[in-house]
Prior knowledge:
Elements: H1 16-24, E1 31-32, H2 49-58, H3 73-84, H4 89-92, E2 96-102, H5 103-118, E3 124-128, H6 132-140, E4 145-149, E5 151-152, E6 157-158, H7 160-169, E7 175-179, H8 192-205, E8 208-213, H9 223-226, H10 228-235, E9 241-245, E10 257-263, H11 267-281, H12 291-300, H13 303-333, H14 341-345, E11 350-352, H15 357-367, E12 369-370, E13 376-378, H16 387-398
This protein binds ligand PGU.
Amino acid sequence: STWWRSVEPAAKDPILGVTEAFLADPSPDKVNVGVGAYRDDNGKPVVLDCVREAERRIAGNLNMEYLPMGGSIKMVEETLKLAYGENSEFIRDKRIAAVQSLSGTGACRLFADFQKRFCPDSQIYIPVPTWANHHNIWRDAQVPQRTFHYYHAESRGLDFAALMDDIKNAPDGSFFLLHACAHNPTGVDPSEEQWREISFQFKAKGHFAFFDMAYQGFASGDPEKDAKAIRIFLEDGHHIGIAQSYAKNMGLYGQRVGCLSVLCEDEKQAVAVKSQLQQLARPMYSNPPVHGAVIVSTILGDPELKKLWLKEVKVMADRIIGMRTALRENLEKLGSPLSWEHITNQIGMFCYSGLTPEQVDRLTNEFHIYLTRNGRISMAGVTTGNVGYLANAIHEVSK
Ligand SMILES: Cc1ncc(COP(=O)(O)O)c(CN[C@@H](CCC(=O)O)C(=O)O)c1O
């Protein structure tokens, strides 16, 4: 008999498990508003024109050599400009330690392992709620987790007072995980003023901020606007970490292209930190995949293609914003007794509907609508074709 005979089936992933259930459903009416992956108004996945053009340009010219352990230097350089700013002094002074990562997940994990190795007694404060996989990432990196208040259920908004209390009450020099924009799953972001207060309090406490920026450009349609929280922290002199991803804002989901960066005090420290990030990558996957990285550097390195990308990412963001309005209006037209204002107040890929797990189960079992049990609706799955059906079902289970 085998040594693994006692291995039990793993629990279904709360997000990717929904996709599996959706695919298994034969109903022609089924609607997938589970996984945070963009769909057009026909419910189809989208490959951006700028990506297709980049593919055309590199087809047949791409060598299959290993990338360095830190990945594509050109892709990383372009990616840092998005997060830190085109003319960032930190880029100019070479103070940023940065490596290509296996998309946003890989950037978070590489950071968590770096934190464990070089700050072994530290913990990580994670918002309630957050992207389900954050808990798995820091668990497997063996970094103890704490939580901090974030979402206010009654107002379906930010629990700013409780958030600030938790920041003040955490031990000096604590690590906090922050969503830079388009918070997953709530769609609730601090205002600019609130970010300034958070930054001030972080400075007073000497806290470290790790920003997971998985949706830059996707929240407001403007990557500069969506980087506002990060720019505030940089202006205030924080040394931050950032996880970046091209899964959603460039539609490179399966290409697994991202970047992990850590802002250091000087170039010497950045060289040292980068070498240690590479040391962590080497036994994990050695070096990252080349194809997606070259697509990104081809797009961001060509002014015309970059302009096309900026237009296309705004089209995606605007479609989602339009669906928020449509869903809210449909629910109000049905005479729903509940307030649905939060659907249009929230931002980014997700609407935190406030539906209970039992109501979600009814949506799935009675209406073939698939979403995560925390009531999160991926607005990217909402179309002019299904928004009426979705609103009616939500009304039926919540009236
Ligand atoms: C906040 C946050 N960070 C990182 C990631 C990881 O994205 P990468 O593809 O690794 O770049 C996601 C994706 N969350 C989506 C997509 C499905 C998933 O990975 O769970 C979601 O929540 O539906 C995310 O929402």
